[in-house]
Specification:
Number of helices: 10
Largest sheet: 10 strands, mixed
Structural class: alpha+beta
Number of strands: 33
Length: 623
């Protein structure tokens, strides 16, 4: 254990809510002394096993620097009491009303502890990062600041329903809510509490399939952290443009809160919760990693980034425009998008989008001439298009690639829009990249992007008029950093990792496997995360987890698209003879009018089934 300014202690407590329910919490804080500010991480991810390794690194580190770090499981999850999402079933969106009401009570409880100074900071990753922002908006007088990492958004992308993330998140949500409390912590009460959880479950399929993108209020100073390639980056840039007290770090990181960013979060807390001038208010609004280096932009939108417009019949051109028709027709095979990479990347090689030449061959491409000098992109590209007038909704997919002299095509960013009129504005995801001189920029269009988003029911493509279409690029001045101080970060000295022993499967499945059945004109993709395996925790708890996500589609049949996730979690305490397993499966398909889902759940104790249920839903497509 490294040496820190404060000696610390750790204790497990139960936090009472107004209705008598108690939430499980773990508190790391300085020993004795004056009251200190508190940092709350409030999440549905079980602190006893799923997040134990991460919690044991960052929370003792915060405590050693003079904060009470509090990690709380939400209602009905982990060792917390109550039922998940009660009274209305599982949360339909991050920041469910019951979750927010409970979180407000937790903040009040923390602020009144004798070891707390009354000032609270909120911390969250993913869905919990979104919840942290919403909680801050409820109690801004108590919450002095927030740190949100890769905040999770809605279930649609440009109006199109996500396929790559929605049903896998739903499967994990059901599984986490179906797992039991730990008998080592709750004694014999674990079993009736578990059975009550199982009986109460109601997957929020209707809400998730029908809901569009959501907005998140920002009412306190926020430090937002994300990695390029995470879908949260565009939200982070919008947050910067809307809040004068917000700051952002976007780096070469996967989804999550990187350890490298922890010293910056500590400077943030010290400034806003202690009143110490740490210089964070003078830092650039955006510190970002661009290809090979860290850069700083004093404001966002940045005065060093200008919007450059490239015409699709000028600086960008395509082959194949008929001489008697100014429109270019775009209609793609249904498996266009198989090389998209993961929607949410955790940093593994199999999750990264490979060379895009196959995807380019299934798309209509507009290429530039070789660039005479490097072009540095920072921000959100936008394709403004003129389509042949038609009231029928179409799916417009745009990918921006850098094409090297040898023809390799590197994906920079992409965007999707469900368009229903002649004028379409496709917002691509936020990106940062330096495109070298001699490379070409390629804007590629397709009419589908499976399995990221569900294909339209009737995919006949669309017609695009290059003469009235442009690509707007956020180009950063190449001399923007001349004379600016370098952007540097302190390396944190964290506690030793939690001694969790990982036993990997003897015959691990490929992380990403694609099969083309030529005779059936079928494409199948299977994904198995490398994080699968058996983890034995220092207190004897064993967690074994396995997940397989599969997609299939026929080349010419949009209604053949199907997605399925199988997820199994087994928890054991061999010394107690405790052995429980939760098996969940979510299947999603569509017809011309509806999305059709089947969610199945089985719970076993010592190998015997104690609960089984399935839920079926039909939700109107909406487009």
């Amino acid at each position: 254990m490294p040496s820190y300014p404060f000696h610390t202690t750790r204790e497990d407590v139960r936090i009472p809510l107004p209705d008598g329910t108690e939430l499980a919490a773990r508190v790391w804080r300085p020993v004795g002394g004056e009251p200190v500010p508190a940092l709350l991480e409030y999440s549905a991810d079980r602190l006893g096993d799923r997040t134990a390794a991460e919690d044991a690194r960052r929370h003792p580190w915060y405590a050693g620097h003079g904060y009470a770090a509090v990690r709380v499981d939400t209602r009905g999850h982990g060792n917390s009491g109550g039922l998940p999402g009660e009274p209305g079933g599982l949360p339909g969106e991050p920041g469910d009303e019951q979750e927010l009401a409970d979180g407000t009570a937790v903040i009040d409880w923390i602020a009144r502890r004798p070891w707390c100074s009354g000032r609270v900071g909120l911390l969250g990753v993913g869905a919990a990062g979104t919840t942290a922002l919403r909680l801050a908006a409820r109690v801004p007088d108590t919450v002095g600041a927030a740190v949100t990492a890769c905040p999770q958004g809605g279930h649609r992308l440009g109006g199109a329903l996500l396929a790559a993330d929605l049903h896998t998140r739903l499967t994990a949500l059901v599984a986490d809510a179906a797992l039991p409390p730990d008998p080592l912590r709750l004694g014999d009460a674990w079993r009736p509490g578990w059975l009550a959880r199982l009986e109460s479950l109601e997957p929020p399929v209707d809400a998730w399939l029908a809901a569009g993108d959501t907005t998140v209020p920002v009412s306190v100073p926020v430090l937002a952290v994300a990695g390029w390639g995470d879908p949260s980056c565009s939200f982070v840039l919008r947050l910067l443009s809307e809040s004068p007290t917000a700051r952002a770090l976007i780096g070469p990181w996967p989804h999550g809160l990187p350890e490298a960013a922890l010293p910056e979060t500590l400077r943030w807390w010290d400034h806003w919760l202690r009143g110490v001038d740490t210089g964070v208010a003078k830092e650039p609004a955006l510190r970002s990693w661009i290809s090979t280096r860290w850069t700083g932009d004093e404001a966002w939108p940045s005065p060093d980034v200008r919007e450059i417009h490239w015409n699709l019949d000028g600086q960008l051109r395509t082959a194949g425009t008929a001489s008697d028709d100014r429109y270019v027709h775009v209609r793609s095979p249904q498996h266009t998008g198989l090389n998209a990479g993961a929607y949410v990347s955790h940093g593994r090689a199999a999750e990264q989008p490979p060379d895009q030449r196959e995807e380019d061959g299934r798309s209509v491409c507009f290429d530039s001439q070789p660039l005479p000098e490097p072009v540095e992109l920072l921000g959100i590209p936008v394709a403004r298009l003129r389509l042949r007038s038609d009231s029928r909704p179409v799916q417009v997919v745009a990918r921006l690639c850098a094409v090297g002299p040898d023809g390799d095509s590197t994906l920079l960013t992409r965007g999707v829009l469900t368009a229903a009129g002649p004028d379409a504005e496709v917002e691509l995801a936020a990106c940062a990249a330096t495109v070298p001189a001699g490379h070409r920029l390629r804007l590629a269009f397709s009419s589908v992007y499976w399995p990221w988003v569900w294909p339209p029911a009737d995919d006949t493509g669309y017609a695009l008029d290059p003469s009235h279409s442009t690509l707007s690029l956020p180009v950063r001045h190449l001399a923007a950093d001349v004379g600016a101080p370098p952007v540097t970060f302190e390396t944190p000295s964290l506690p030793d990792p939690l001694a969790v022993h990982l036993t990997e499967p003897l015959t691990a499945r490929p992380e990403h496997l694609t099969v083309h059945d030529i005779g059936r004109h079928e494409w199948r993709t299977e994904l198995s995360p490398a994080t699968d395996g058996t983890r034995t925790h220092p207190d004897g708890l064993v967690r074994d987890e396995h997940t397989v996500t599969a997609y299939r589609i026929l080349t010419g049949a949009p209604l053949s698209a199907q997605a399925r996730t199988d997820h199994t979690v087994r928890l054991e305490r061999p010394d107690l003879g405790w052995d429980v397993t939760v098996q969940t499966r979510t299947q999603l398909r569509c017809d011309a009018e509806h999305f059709i889902s089947l969610v199945q759940l089985r719970a076993l104790e010592a190998g015997s089934v104690v609960f089984t249920r399935e839920w079926q839903h039909r939700v109107a497509r909406g487009n």
